[in-house]
Amino acid sequence: MAVFTQRPAATLLAAGISLWAMTARAQRPFFNEKGISRPLLENYLDHAVTMTEFLAVDPYASDAPYPNKEDDIRLIRNIGAKFIGRAIYRWGGESVMANKDYLDNAKRLVAEVHKNDPDVIFQAALFEQISQQVNTVPIPAWTFKALGLPAEERHFRYDDMLNLKGKLVDHWSKGNSVPDITRTETQLWFMFLAGTYMEVGCEALHLGQIALIGMEDPALTEWTAFLVKLRHYAKDHTRHHWVLLDAHTPSGGMVVNGKSLLDFNSFPLRIKSVPEHPQQGVLQMGFTDALFGRSEGGISPSGWKAKSMPYLVELDNFGISNHPGVPDTTTIYPWGFDEISWFYQQPEQYRHEWLQYAQDWVTAHDSNGHLQMPVTRVVTLGWKKPRLKYRANTKSEHCPDGMNDEATIKAIWQKADKQRK
User: Which UniProt keywords apply (predicted)?
Assistant: First the structure.
C-alpha cells in the first residue's frame, strides 16, 4: 500500500452543483451571449482531461502523433470526459497549419466525438513558441479583418513577432523564440491560430505562459485589447458564441481593474518529492509557486463575481532536470523529472492511488481547484532517450501502449459526482 504524508478525505464542493449526468441536458444551453455560469463551468472542469494532440493527424508524418484515435473516442465516451484539454496546438512545425488535410482531419475527429456527446468542449492552445516556419504560412484576409487591419497578400513574418530588445529571442533554440504580444505580427499569428482552431470546432483556448508572451506588457494593456477582439471573433465562429480562455498564471491570474481576462486559471500541480519514500510525491500548500489558495478573484468575463477564480491543475510536462532520480524537495521536478514523466514511471497500483489522493487533496484544500486528469501526454526520461507517450487508455489490441488508468479516472469522477449531489 502506498504511503502518503497527507491523505485527507474529500470535502463537498459548493452546494447546488448536482450530478452532470442528471443535469447536463436539462441545463442547456450551457452558454448565452454573456458567457457561462460558474456552476456549469465547474462541471466542465470537474470532467476535464489533458489529451495532448488528440485532434492532430499530421499528413507530413509517417504516423499520427498519437495513433489509435478510435480507442480515444471510445475512452472519452466511457469516462464521461467533457473538456478535452490541449487537443490541438503547434510547438514548431507551423507549416502544417496551411495543410487542408491536417485541419479537415481535426474537424472530422471533433464530429466523431460529438456524435456520442455534443456537449464535449475541445481546447486548443496558443503557446509561447514560434519557429521560422511561420514564414511559410499565408495570412488569410479574415485575420486582418478580425484585428481591424487592412488586408495584405503575404505570409507571416517571424522576425516581426520578436521582441525589439531581443528578449527571449532564440529562447528555446536557434530560430525558436517567444513571440511578443505587443507586436502586431504576434497578434495576427495568434488570431489566425485561434480562428483556425474555432473553425475546426474548438471552443476553448489555452494561452500558455502569458507572462513570457507579455514580456513587455506588465499592465496587461495589449493582452486586454487583443482578447476583446478574440472574444468578439468567437461570437460568430463558435457553436456557443463564446470561447473559454485560460492560461498558466504563476502570479495568480490575469486581473485588470477587478476583472479577470480569463474564464479560469490553470497551472501545474507542483508535486513535492518524499525522500523517505522512494519515488513518492505529495501536494503541499505553498510549495514553490503552486497555485493552491492563490487564484485571484474578480469579475469573470461572464459577469459573475468570484473571491477566487476557478482553476485547473494538471500533471504538466516541461522536460527533465539535471538531477534525475534525486528527491530534491526544493525544485518543481518530482524525483528529478517533470510531473507526467514521474507519474509515467510509477507502478500501476500507485498511479491509481495517487490520482485518488490528488483528487481528494485538491478538493479538501481549495474548492476553487479542479484536477485535470492525464490521458495522453509526452514523456521525457532522458536527454538522449526517445520521447515516449503516456496513455491512460485500457491496454488492448486497439491501444497497445495503454497504461490501464482509464477505469480509475472514471471511478474517481463517479465518486466525486455522488459527493456533490
Answer: Signal
